[in-house]
Structures are given as C-alpha cells and as structure tokens.
Design goal:
Blueprint (H helix, E strand, L loop, with lengths): L1 H22 L9 H21 L2 E2 L2 E3 L5 E3 H8 L2
Keywords: Receptor, Transcription, Transcription regulation
Length: 80
C-alpha cells in the first residue's frame, strides 16, 4: 500500500506542475468556471498521457515531476 501511495504522490505532483503551467495563461481565466474545470481536466489528462508516452525508458516511466516509476507500479495504480 505504501508503494501505491508513493506512485500516487508522484503522479499528483506531475498534475500540480501542469496546473502551474496552465495558470500562466491569463486568457484561461476569462472562461466560465465549469468550462474551465472541464477544459483543465481534459488538458491535464492529455498532457499526462503525451508527456508519459514520450518519456518511456524501457520498463520505466518518467513523470512530469522527474520521478521515475516502473510500468508495473503505474499499472497497479491506474489499472490496465
């Protein structure tokens, strides 16, 4: 269970990094809150998938935060 929490924490830190990047765009805040949340969620998912897909190293995955986890750990947390 501790391993699962470590991977989840690394994954959450990657989400925070993406959120900080999105926050730099001032036009993002001119959108209604509900649309902004939906757009952010979709963007977050796409960014994580794209960044992770481009940062595969054998059996390891390099997250946006720079943390390296094994593919088995990611499967355990996220499922197949």
């Amino acid at each position: 269970c501790e391993e699962k929490l470590l991977v989840y924490d690394a994954f959450t830190r990657s989400c925070d990094i993406i959120k900080q990047w999105v926050d730099k765009f001032s036009l993002f805040y001119s959108i209604q809150n509900s649309e902004r949340d939906r757009l952010y969620s979709n963007c977050l998912l796409e960014q994580i998938v794209l960044r992770t897909a481009s940062r595969l190293d054998g059996d390891r995955v390099i997250l946006c935060s720079g943390v390296v986890v094994h593919k088995v750990q990611m499967n355990y947390l996220l499922g197949d």
